[in-house]
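cron nightly-structures :: item 1 of 1
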Amino acid sequence: MNEPISKWWLYIYNICDQFITKSISETDLIQTLQTFMTKSNLAEFQSRLDLLYVFHCHATQLPKSDEIQSLISIFWNLYCYFEQYSQTISNKIKDLRSPIEKKLKDYVKIVRWKDINYWAIKETIDKSHRTLHKYMREFRDILQQPVMPHLHNLEIGTRETEGIWDRPQRQNPSIHHYTLEADIYVARQSLTKKIQAGEGGILSKAESYFLKSRKLCKETILATEYPALVQSLDGFVTEVIETNKHLQNLEVDKTLPKEKQVSQAKSILQQKHRALADLFKKLNKIGLSYKTGILESKLKKPADDFVHRPIDLIKNFSHINHGRQEEKMLTIWNCCEMYYMRSQIRIDVLETALQNPSKDLGPQNIERCKGFSAHLLSLAQHQKQQLTQSSRLYYYLRYYLLQMNEFCEGTDFLHIDLTNSIMAFLKNATVVMNQYKIILNTCPSEDDFASGTIEVPVLKFGAKEGICYKYSNCWSETIALINGILTICRKISVLLQKCKKSAPAVEYDLVVPQFIPVPDFTDLLKNLSSVKDSIGQLSEAFDNNSTTRSLTWLQKEVTKLIEQCQESKSIEISFEKCKKHSAKLTEEILVVIQNLFKKYSGVKKVEKANEDEDETVELRDGNLKTLLVENLTSDVSTLDM
């Protein structure tokens, strides 16, 4: 059933090529890919979904451009959107397959194979084949059913679709989720030992500025109200979830008389209307406006939901040495992407349901449901864009910080060109050594000639015994020599790769330093010299015949590299220019810290020790839109990263 997938690869590749050459627009591309997924049958859905992911990965390797960046985002967002239905489709196939499996198993139980008559057994076999083919056709018809009817009801409750808000323990989160340990985010005071005062200007007071900045940063962090705002918002979300579950479980008691059933139904309906009105008031209180949402939904293009750049903080921080600062972010980030995609799906379901709404809902409530949901999604998308941009800048800053720490602690340095030359040599040496191992493994064993009935002529060695048979002393020594070279090459390669501190970057090209620090320069030279000596011994083992040309070339290359390493290379850089850049950067950082401190200096600080775990934080006016989203955007803009 998955055989047609191969033809779709060329189809999607052609669409991507048309988009890159600007033959089709973003909207056309998204609509085409959505149709590609929604017109699938049950059997092909997962394979088509995997195809979207394959093309997303393919797009990340293409030359950077605006069209390629859009292609990466579109494929990723569409993949995440339809991936939410993957478990639903899989469960649907299992449910439809179960009756057929049961009928087939029941038939296998009653069929008899104990007849000794040939014709009876033949008839039983034919009947079994017909029955099996019948059930296969039934299952094939099931797999060929369209997937579209099943792309509306999202199953929740399975392990794959369960998020942090679906877990019982999330209803009463611990207070530490809403606290900020300022000391974690402030630079260590021990760094003052590494600060060297300059001869003049702002750098001459670097140590005092550093200590003052630590104090201001700590006071600013403690003065921010974000933890309390998030706590109140979490409490509101928890309350909405609990109210929703309570109202869903309300049912009319069928054992009551008809009049009381009608009265109870009216009471339940009144509770739902009251809860909906309270929800609208709370949404308006936190800064949402249904009129703004309706206007934005009319102005929004269909493609806007699928062009946002992808983000995954867990994958980002896995490429850098993240610590306690990032652990807090990862805890808050937990399941955010899943809930974002789920909210998009539910808004689509809500819009479909509101096209034929219940009469009890009323036109005003319908407008508010549409408007508030649209405005909330718009805020979420705006915040996701800000988070994507700021998290990537933070990723690059962390990468450069690691580089600078290595520079400060390093004593020996290698030029990047020389480092790349050494790594290229190591790759070539590894390939050549593996080739020589293949040559040695083609040697016959001595037992093959001793046990043979036909006499095979063997060339005799002269005064010096060479490699003749497998597992001979000379052969074993040569293999050990090659393995030793490979081990040293791997060791040096791992060391240099670690020193380069490379990190993947799709959107921007990272700045590559001209010099990289090496922890033990003497050990590096010693290992290269060892490789050189081993290659010379290997050439002698092969008696310097025509097969040793590669070894001769490698020996020349490693000799050249050792000479370059031994040369005293001066780092050609203008320290005056470096001082100017450092002074300018220091001044900019101090201005940013000062501006943020002025903003929060009038806010009362809430210390962690004085917080009460049972204290409930009430919602404030503009809690989400103004105090959280807009304020965070302003603070990130002030940081000027």
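cron nightly-structures :: done
Residues 363-409 form the longest helix (47 residues).
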